[in-house]
Design a protein that fits this description.
mainly alpha, 6 helices, 2 strands
Length: 179
């Protein structure tokens, strides 16, 4: 039987999956921008520019947004980089306690980054700072996704902690790659 936290966690997981699909769509769009730029630089077509001057700048932002979209989903899937050789070698109860410690440290880090990211984005918004490259854009546009994603990561850390609490008293098996 699943409780309300499990139902909420499952709904949140579906949201993160949708967010990861958005990341995939951004990747596809980035690929199209790059291909379009290379094509226009190498195939002279009357009435078209020789490349897309803004393509590098937009591709950089898209790469950042892809990372922001998929990071919470990767955490949920246990696919972030994780070295757990020690956790697999020590007694299960101690490994479980260290998993808790790791999740707690991760949660604190996510909350702190969300807090400072919010302050940076808000400060940028209030000051009217702009990025001037090929395109001129408000700086806060690039800063705003960071605190949002770290709030999402914080929420997932709480769900991870709940799953750890209700699961087997031992290390997680989601990232083990060797037997």
């Amino acid at each position: 039987m699943t409780g309300p936290v499990d139902s909420l966690s499952n709904a949140y997981g579906r949201f993160l999956s949708a967010l990861s699909l958005l990341g995939c769509a951004i990747l596809m769009a980035m690929m199209l921008v790059i291909v379009g730029d290379v094509f226009l630089r190498n195939v002279p077509l009357p009435g078209t520019p020789r490349g897309l001057a803004w393509s590098t700048e937009v591709s950089e932002l898209m790469l950042y947004l892809i990372t922001m979209c998929v990071a919470p989903w990767l955490l949920r899937q246990g696919q972030h980089i994780r070295v757990d050789i020690v956790l697999q070698a020590i007694p299960p109860r101690l490994a479980w306690a260290l998993e808790w410690l790791g999740d707690l440290i991760g949660l604190v880090c996510c909350v702190v980054i969300a807090w400072y990211g919010t302050q940076a984005a808000w400060s940028s918004y209030q000051s009217g700072a702009v990025n001037i490259k090929t395109l001129v854009t408000p700086e806060w546009w690039a800063l705003a996704p960071l605190p949002v994603v770290f709030v999402l990561l914080s929420i997932e850390m709480l769900f991870r902690m709940h799953r750890l609490q209700t699961g087997v008293r031992g290390p997680r098996n989601d990232a083990v790659s060797a037997a």
